[in-house]
Specification:
The chain is α/β, with parallel strands linked by helices and 248 residues long. The chain has one domain. It is built from nine helices and eight strands. A hairpin with a 5-residue loop joins strand 7 and strand 8. The chain is globular and about 50 Å long. The two termini are 20 Å apart.
Length: 248
């Protein structure tokens, strides 16, 4: 039976930081929280393997599917939508089934889904297929000891006393709402991090929500270490042995 698990035992670790990671136009936007002084910083990585290579990261949370079903939906998406209903459930979209990653054209992937699985693929999911493929090629089941798929809106709902955010994240009201939640949770520098990355990499490289989402995921990584994170999963594994789960 699908289950939501909270207050799992703390995760033993020897790392110095946690990372929250979100895909962006320039690659991967990451926010780092130092576990010893709680300082927060941001950086960009060109490849996800660069993120995995950060040896002092005790926990990494990324806003990208990890573990892909061969057919049918993943239980963790249904659980996330239920948690975020009725306001933010549409922010959870179904990732490609594994076979869909082998196609080079959206029409072929979508057609395969409709013919073989009874359901096509959204354009939104297809747009991030290269990043999903990049992670899938880089990650092993063993990596999931310190790596998890997380959903920013699930993370923000935990920070918001278990309620979904009232406003969409790309509106001015939504940005203010999420900024306030981050500040309450101890991250007051989200805007400074965004401005710094934008200045360093260019205005088109990164968006406000990339940084805010990465901040929320860094807090999720920290919460997973202390046992207070939300985990949505039925414990199913995909064909590669990857657990299909969403953290927040």
């Amino acid at each position: 039976m699908p289950a939501t698990r909270r207050r799992k035992p703390p995760v033993p670790h020897a790392g110095q930081c946690v990372l929250g990671v979100d895909g962006c136009r320039a690659g991967w936007a990451a926010v780092r929280i130092n576990l010893y002084d709680n300082s927060v910083s941001g950086f960009m990585a060109a490849a996800f393997t660069d993120i995995l290579a950060i040896a002092d990261a005790a926990m990494i949370m990324v806003d990208m599917p990890i573990g892909l079903a061969d057919t049918g939906p993943r239980a963790c998406e249904a659980m996330a939508r239920k948690r975020l209903s009725p306001l933010r459930h549409s922010s959870v979209f179904s990732p490609p089934r594994r076979k869909m990653l082998s196609f080079s054209r959206y029409e072929d992937a979508n057609g395969w889904g409709k013919k073989n699985d009874g359901k096509g693929l959204s354009k939104q999911a297809w747009m991030i297929a290269p990043k999903i493929r990049e992670i899938d090629e880089a990650v092993t089941p063993e990596d999931q000891i310190r790596l998890g798929e997380a959903h920013p809106e699930v993370a923000f709902s935990r920070l918001n006393d278990d309620k979904p955010c009232a406003h969409p994240k790309r509106t001015a009201e939504g940005q203010a709402e999420r900024r306030a939640l981050l500040m309450r949770a101890g991250i007051a520098d989200a805007e400074r991090i965004y401005a710094g990355l934008r200045k360093q990499h260019g205005a088109k490289a990164i968006a406000h929500d990339d940084v805010y989402d990465a901040c929320a995921l860094a807090l999720t990584a920290k919460a997973r270490l202390d046992g207070s994170a939300i985990r949505l999963s039925d414990d199913a594994r995909d064909a590669r042995g990857l657990v299909m789960e969403i953290w927040g």
